[in-house]
Design brief:
- The protein has 347 residues and is α/β, with parallel strands linked by helices.
- The protein has a single domain, classed as Metallo-dependent phosphatases (Purple Acid Phosphatase, chain A, domain 2), CATH 3.60.21.
- It is 27% helix and 17% strand.
- A 7-stranded mixed sheet has the order 4-5-6-9-10-12-11. Strands 3-2-1-13-14 form a 5-stranded mixed sheet, with no helix packed on it.
- Strand 7 and strand 8 form a beta hairpin.
- The chain is globular, with a radius of gyration of 19 Å.
- It starts with a helix and ends in a 6-residue tail after the last strand.
Length: 347
């Protein structure tokens, strides 16, 4: 295994470099936060059919394969796997909070969230291949960073001119200080042991993604994750007083500013269809670097310090069972061209 990892680490810059001279355009399908309940399963299948008919190179589900008020029984994960297998094309999956973080809720079955997370990893990340019928090989975090091998959901896929990076950040404040659930004490609160380990892994993986993009002279990096780190940067509904995204945003902002290409973050969670440039030198963030986090307000007008090579793509979700088509072009400054694709039968 050590020899395999060494060869992969050595090959990583060279393997994509061999593709640099063969740059061409292609399309990626982006979706997430679905299906939300049995009533939305038929619309979700219609979305799958719509994506299949479009022939994208790859698809991405950014998490929340169920609603936050439905059960986390084993049968759910089996059904999710069946839906993924209905895609003719490769699918990269980034985990959402509804699949594990919120499973302690009574209406979710009162499960231990870490037990459900183990089920997710066993069900969807036990090999180095993507989901979907035409699977592709992915680079798992443990392949490049063995110390984080227990986070196989963090994956990388490279198709010139873009590096694709799935990172496991979720809603519900990224599981930081998840002390209460639906007004009652969370019996599974672990004093943030899970959060601290995964947060360190996520930041290390983010740095690895930017390094791969630089080493391979990629024109863009697309980050695939569930959490809305902007409008939901600081939430207090679970008893938290600190942001579960502060460290990640600091690293993301720093890396984006140093990167001479484009960065697109594809996310979901808040079920609001948008493509925008929300990141500034200070937003999102806390008003003070110490003490409890009081989030900086969303800028109401152009602040003058916007980080312009960063774009956020929030996929439709919940009742909006539609998807995003992103055209990838080998043109500096115009790598990502994303648009909403409405499924006619789901309007």
């Amino acid at each position: 295994m050590k020899k395999h990892r060494l060869l992969l680490a050595l090959c990583l810059p060279l393997c994509l470099a061999a593709q640099v001279t063969v740059r061409y355009s292609y399309d990626v399908a982006l979706f997430g936060d679905m299906p939300y309940g049995t009533a939305r399963e038929a619309p979700y299948q219609r979305l799958i059919d719509d994506v299949n008919a479009y022939h994208p190179l790859i698809g991405v589900h950014v998490g929340d394969t169920k609603s936050g008020s439905t059960r986390c029984d084993d049968s759910h994960y089996m059904q999710t796997a069946a839906f993924f297998n209905n895609f003719f094309w490769p699918v990269i999956y980034s985990v959402g909070d509804n699949e594990w973080t919120d499973c302690m809720r009574a209406n979710n079955g009162g499960y231990d969230p870490l037990g459900r997370l183990a089920m997710v990893r066993k069900s969807f990340f036990s090999t180095n291949q993507s989901l979907g019928r035409a699977a592709v090989d992915l680079i798992r975090q443990g392949d490049l960073q063995p110390e984080y091998a227990r986070y196989p959901e963090n994956a990388m896929w490279m198709r010139d001119p873009v590096v694709f990076l799935s990172v496991h950040t979720v809603g519900s404040n990224n599981n930081l200080e998840y002390k209460t659930a639906q007004g009652a004490a969370n019996p599974f609160y672990d004093n943030d042991v899970e959060f601290k380990g995964r947060n360190a892994a996520d930041i290390a993986w983010l740095h690895a993604g930017f390094k791969a993009a630089r080493d391979n002279r990629a024109l863009g990096l697309m980050i695939l994750t569930q959490a809305n780190m902007f409008e939901s940067f600081m939430t207090t509904g679970t008893g938290s007083t600190h942001s579960g995204f502060a460290d990640f945003i600091t690293a993301l902002r720093d890396e984006t500013k140093k990167f001479d290409g484009e960065v697109a973050m594809v996310s979901g969670d808040s079920h609001y269809m948008r493509i925008d440039k929300p990141m500034t030198q200070t937003y999102p963030g806390c008003q003070s670097a110490t003490g409890e986090c009081k989030a900086i307000a969303t800028p109401t007008e152009s602040p003058g310090d916007r980080i312009l090579n960063f774009t956020r793509v929030e996929v439709p979700g919940d009742g909006d069972v539609h998807w995003v088509l992103c055209h990838i072009a080998p043109v500096r400054g115009r790598v990502f061209g994303c648009e909403f694709k409405l499924v006619d039968a789901n309007r």
